[in-house]
Amino acid sequence: FTKQGEAYAIPIMPTYNENNIKVTAVKETVNGFAQVVDSTCSLSADGRLYLAGGTNGNVLMLSKSENPLYFPQRSTVEVGGAEPITALSIQNKKIIALKNSECYFVTLRKGDRLNEISLIPDNDTLFKTDDTLHSELISKTVGCEFKNTVCKVGDKTVWLGQDCEIYALNDIGFDGVRRLSNSLKPTVNYEYMDAFAVYSGSYYILTS
Question: Where are the alpha helices (DSSP H) in 12-159?
């Protein structure tokens, strides 16, 4: 349903049930199903579910936690080029989207109110437009291939980079990534694809 071209949710009415609207059929879009269900990673934050995926894996989609089956078309953003998003984190109320060799932050703009007073008798629901997302580049050379190594250490996001060096997101903004170690390849012998990290007692612990 739309109102002047914008999304317009229709709630279930607690009274006057004869006016409730039921959807009994849907029309499938050719190849549209894959764009929704193919996912590389996800994150839950601030009552919202963020899902990375789509045909190329580079689209970030948003859904409200109370209705996780509905991903509004306007609540999506393509993050960078066609390279898929490999991991998600949150820092300073912004979503951090990591790719194999790039890092982005995504800003959420909450939807505006459509009404100030009740539009339906005996229902004081306030309707809002869809949330929107906007992505910006942090680093075009540093990314994360191993999504299970992404971990919050205090208020910073730390991960194992594609070059097997450990990085931290020091600042939200371009070139805000800081290297914490040299390459681990000469000193550690295990499969990095199986690596994961935990934060314990002020330490970033990497294991496999």
Answer: 32-37
